[in-house]
Design brief:
Blueprint (H helix, E strand, L loop, with lengths): L8 H7 L6 E12 L6 E11 L4 E5 L7 E4 L1 E5 L2 E8 L7 E8 L2 E2 L3 E4 L9 E6 L6 H16 L8 E4 L21 H4 L4 E3 L9 H11 L15 E5 L2 E5 L12 H15 L5 E5 L13 H16 L4 E4 L5 E4 L6 E5 L19 E5 L3 E7 L3 E8 L4 E8 L15 E4 L4 E2 L14 E8 L14 E2 L5 E10 L8 E8 L6
Parallel strand pairs: 10-11, 11-12, 14-15, 15-16, 16-18, 23-28
Antiparallel strand pairs: 1-2, 2-6, 3-4, 3-7, 5-6, 7-8, 7-9, 10-20, 13-14, 17-18, 17-19, 20-21, 21-22, 24-26, 25-27, 27-28
Length: 491
């Protein structure tokens, strides 16, 4: 986290003193930032009423016996924000934590450290333009939180945001559009943002909130500014671009860093997937003029194409739009997390073929495998309305596994899993492979059937992984969850 605040050197130094009058009430948070294989950052805002150093307790259980980390205090435009950096953790491990801030104590929550370099099997959530409608953002955050809870802990990963997280980044109250409505999700899933035009309004006030509320991996990725950065998460590399910084992006410091960062990702043997994150993409759809994207297209598409970037997420236009790959790069506009929808009729932007358009509030779920990436677009009812797989070849893409919705049953009552919604982009016949990965032991009657059955003998959550194959390519995994109870209540 880099503070860029209008204060004298002496005043700023005083803000970093370890003993200050500290919090008795949480105003925002806690939320998670900057997860690595061995560290994570916890951030929150609180009122100042007591002289007690705030801290984060953490451990493998709710005993929190692994350690306690004191938080650093910073004045962010007159508001006290606290940051605790926890280090010395183990990779791919779930920890419990809670924040003690003066007389206030947060609820127990968990975080999971990043997977080892080159590892796959992650689920990433993508949202954008959540500003101006906290109720929609709250619904999407709840769907993300619920989905995360339906999967084993190893699936817990992160949220990417394409920007416009608030209506006006200079207004303190507008930041309540981001943190409070999504509290349950953001205290367990780290958030990474490509800053948009609404929060990055320029000047010390907007910058103060951006640099104060976020702790993003700019220094570890060779960047000199927190607004542009990259992160490595297993076999995924994400490059986050700032289109609205005063210094610009067509040349200069940021542009040079982007060139270097994408080249490094292309040369990294542990990186199977490179993802671009920017407020709007070279190809999009919506009410914003295409002329605004011409410079973005001329500047970035050659870099994405030449460095093997497979997918780029943006927002800015308040819709969902996906284009067919442009010279190997799939561009998706994921800008439906809350702002008023762009409901006009639009022509597809030139130079690319529009594959799917939906003028609805929505978000994306991205499943990452070794050789396949699967993207689902999800509406406010939790229904998937668009799907695409990346990987394979231009004429033979990987199939898509659909393991069916969560199911509830009782001990002794047979239940049937449903993978019949799986499909192949080229309509090839599919082979199904089910594996139980969580819960009391259960025996499927046919692990290669699209619809196998079993009769549970014990209570508990039973989770089954489904992978389908078209004979050449295999899908990313999907999961079927069956909650089994002791019996059926009758009234």
């Amino acid at each position: 986290m880099r503070l860029k605040l209008p204060c004298t050197l002496a005043a700023c130094a005083a803000l970093a003193l370890p003993s200050v009058a500290l919090a008795g009430k949480f105003e925002k948070g806690p939320w998670l930032q900057n997860v690595t294989t061995d560290s994570i950052v916890v951030v929150w805002e609180a009122t100042q009423v007591e002289s007690i150093t705030p801290s984060v307790e953490y451990g493998l259980t709710t005993d929190y016996t692994e350690g306690v980390v004191d938080a650093a205090h910073a004045d962010v435009n007159g508001h006290p924000v606290y940051t605790a950096a926890i280090a010395g953790l183990s990779a791919e491990t779930t920890y419990h934590y809670r924040v003690r801030s003066g007389s206030a104590e947060s609820l127990d929550a968990t975080f999971r450290t990043a997977p080892a370099a080159g590892a796959s099997g992650m689920r990433i959530y993508v949202v954008g333009d959540n500003r101006s409608n906290p109720s929609v953002w709250s619904t999407i955050a709840r769907l993300i939180h619920d989905d995360m809870n339906m999967h084993p802990d190893s699936r817990q990963t992160l949220i990417l945001n394409t920007g416009d997280v608030v209506a006006d980044g200079r207004e303190y109250d507008d930041w309540d559009m981001l943190w409070p409505p999504a509290q349950a999700a953001l205290r367990v899933l780290p958030l990474y943002v490509s800053f948009g035009n609404h929060e990055d309004r320029g000047g010390d006030v907007a910058d103060g909130y951006i640099y104060g509320y976020f702790d993003l991996p700019y220094s570890t990725s060779g960047s000199t500014d927190e607004k542009w950065y990259s992160l490595a998460h297993g076999n995924v590399h994400v490059t986050a671009i700032s289109l609205y910084d005063d210094a610009g992006y067509t040349s200069g410091e940021q542009y040079d860093w982007i060139v270097s960062d994408l080249a490094a990702a292309a040369a990294d043997a542990d990186t199977a997937w490179t993802v671009g994150l920017m407020h709007f993409t070279p190809w999009s759809l919506g009410s914003h003029d295409e002329a605004d994207a011409a410079t973005v297209r001329d500047t970035f598409h050659p870099l994405f194409r030449d460095n093997g970037v497979q997918i780029v997420f943006g927002g800015h236009n308040h819709i969902y739009a996906r284009y067919e790959p442009v010279e190997g790069v799939t561009y998706i506009t994921c800008g439906g997390a809350g702002a008023s929808l762009h409901t006009d009729a639009y022509d597809a932007w030139s130079g690319a073929t529009l594959a799917h358009f939906a003028g609805i509030h929505s978000f994306c779920i991205v499943d990452v495998g070794d050789d396949v990436m699967a993207v689902r677009a999800v509406d406010l009812e939790g229904a998937v309305f668009d799907r695409v797989t990346l990987g394979g070849t231009e004429t033979d893409r990987p199939p898509f596994a659909e393991a069916g919705p969560p199911t509830m049953t009782a001990v002794g009552e047979a239940v049937t899993l449903d993978g019949s919604g799986s499909f192949d982009p080229e309509d090839a016949a599919l082979a199904h492979a089910w594996t139980q990965i969580e819960g009391p032991s259960a025996v499927l009657d046919d692990e290669t059937s699209a619809t196998p059955s079993f009769t549970p003998a014990a209570e508990g959550r039973h989770t089954f992984e489904l992978i389908v194959s078209d004979g050449t390519n295999s899908s990313a995994p999907d999961y079927a969850v069956v909650d089994v109870h002791a019996g059926v209540l009758r009234f």
